[in-house]
Every structure is written in C-alpha cells, then in structure tokens.
Write a structure and sequence with these properties.
mainly beta, two-stranded antiparallel ribbon, 15% strand, 40 residues
Length: 40
C-alpha cells in the first residue's frame, strides 16, 4: 500500500491518509466515520 497526503490540502488529523493506493489483486474494505477533535 502507498499512503499519500497532498501538500496543497490540510494534513489529516491522527494516523490517517487522504489517499491510499493498493495493488490491483487486493480485496478492499471501506470504513468511514467521524471523530471529535475538541473534548466537548
């Protein structure tokens, strides 16, 4: 896998990447969600 974070957009918070490329023979699983940044 290759993790890509373009320089012209805000960096992701935490251990995330904006783009991930995977080999063509790989099975994909997409999981989405939100997380809070402020404690309240």
């Amino acid at each position: 896998m290759k993790f890509i974070n373009p320089k012209d957009i805000a960096p992701p918070q935490g251990l995330y990447s904006h783009i991930v490329t995977v080999p063509s023979d790989t099975e994909l699983l997409f999981i989405l969600g939100q997380f809070g940044i402020m404690p309240d």
